[in-house]
Amino acid sequence: MAAPSIYHYHMRQDFNTNVDNNNSTATPMTDALNIHLQFSHVLELCYPETIQIPLNTTIESHLFPRQLFLSHVTRENIIKEILYSTGCSSDFVETVAPDISSFALDMVTDPCNASSSEPLTMVLAILVTTPYDEREEIDRALNDSLMQETSRFKPASKSCIDGLKRMSLEGSCSMKECMVCLEEFLMGSEVVCLPCGHIFHGDCIVRWLETSHLCPLCRFAMPR
């Protein structure tokens, strides 16, 4: 099962952001609350190293009359509509909407803000991180292969195993470790490259092929 997405959010009043009425969801107004949304969704690759890949970034302003936020129902509906527009999960939206709604109410009712007729700006930043652990996917593929019925495990032929070409690992290699023993490759170590292109420690792949004629990663069939 894939790991669930992780949500982070925070709100703050921004005294420096200029409201761009051309990008807002309402007509120009002064006595208003500008909800400045900064939404990011990233895919986090966890193996072989942690890398974050941007999937979606949204920066937009939503301008509303302040009086709308005096009503509990109205302000929560506004917040939920904004959150749902980003594709956030319903669990996240229903959980955080009251907190964000309360912050918006505090802003519009704050005596320090009440005297100003200029739009107030609330920055709402949301970061969604979806983990993808390639190592887990590889391990799962290996486990699924190992749990197949015994009748489906047919060893590679002895001539095929004897004919494996061994070589010394030199230069760059996209595979960082042997996916049979899960130990890292060392420069200069002896490896075997199967016809499918996957590389393994020589002794490891020999033991594997003595049990199954299929590549442990892509199921390429070796002669039986």
Automatic annotation (TrEMBL):
Catalysed transformations (reactions): S-ubiquitinyl-[E2 ubiquitin-conjugating enzyme]-L-cysteine + [acceptor protein]-L-lysine = [E2 ubiquitin-conjugating enzyme]-L-cysteine + N(6)-ubiquitinyl-[acceptor protein]-L-lysine
Query: Molecular function (GO) terms listed?
Result: ubiquitin protein ligase activity; zinc ion binding
Record's CDD domains?
A: RING-H2_PA-TM-RING
Q: Name one GO cellular component term.
A: cytoplasm
Please report the stretch or stretches of sequence annotated as the RING-type domain.
178-219
What are the entry keywords? Metal-binding, Zinc, Zinc-finger
Q: What is its EC number?
A: 2.3.2.27
Any one of the GO BP annotations: protein ubiquitination
Which InterPro entries does its entry note?
A: Znf_RING, Znf_RING/FYVE/PHD
Q: What class of enzyme is it?
A: transferase
Which PANTHER family does its entry note? E3 UBIQUITIN-PROTEIN LIGASE PRAJA (PTHR15710), RING-H2 FINGER PROTEIN ATL21B (PTHR15710:SF77)
What is the protein named? RING-type E3 ubiquitin transferase
Q: Tell me what organism the protein belongs to.
A: Salix purpurea
